[in-house]
Amino acid sequence: MVAGVGFVEDPEGELGRGLPLDRDVHLRRAAQVLAWSTEAALSLDEIDLAALELTGHARVILEELEARTAALPTGSELGELLAYSLAEAGRRLSVTFSSLGALAYAQSRARLVEGLHRSLDRLEQHPGTRLSARS
């Protein structure tokens, strides 16, 4: 859990459903976070906020990918590749703040967002897996 940040209860995962993915905004945020160095004069609150934003976005992308991957034909090579990527993303999302430190945690989330968007791009190349209205 990110220090000093409260979380909204959403056990059914309804809050993000139907919202656009805002790809450009979040990729810019990820690039900004990856450019931060340990010497930068950043407040812990700024790092926490970035980590929280990127974590939320990663969860929304992951949900989108899971739904679209489930629609692929059984035994599809792309489906198998994406299943591996989704499992890895789930493992990376389970890493806690305390195990990494604030900046490393935020940068890990930034790399995850970039990777999930690459998976969406791969899926977009596949016939019959058009992006939803959210993308």
What's the number of helices? 5
Helix/sheet category: mainly alpha
Extended strand count: 0
Apparent shape:
elongated
> If you compute it from the alpha carbons, what radius of gyration comes out, rounded to the nearest whole angstrom?
15 Å
Helix content: 55-70%
Could you tell me how far the N terminus lies from the C terminus, measured between alpha carbons in angstroms?
28 Å
Summarize the biggest pleated sheet. Answer: none
Query: In percent, how much strand structure appears in the residues?
Result: under 5%
Order of helices and strands: HHHHH
Note poorly predicted spans.
Answer: 1-8
Nearest-integer average pLDDT: 80
Q: How does this model look, in words?
A:
- Helix content is 64%, strand content 0%.
- It is an all-alpha fold and 135 residues long.
- α1 packs across α2 and α2 (44-70) runs antiparallel to α3 (77-94).
- The two termini are 28 Å apart.
- Residues 1-8 have low confidence and may be disordered.
Features:
5 helices; 135 residues; mainly alpha
Write the layout of secondary structure elements.
Elements: H1 23-35, H2 44-70, H3 77-94, H4 97-100, H5 102-125
TL;DR of this structure?
The protein is mostly helical and 135 residues long. It is built from 5 helices and no strands.
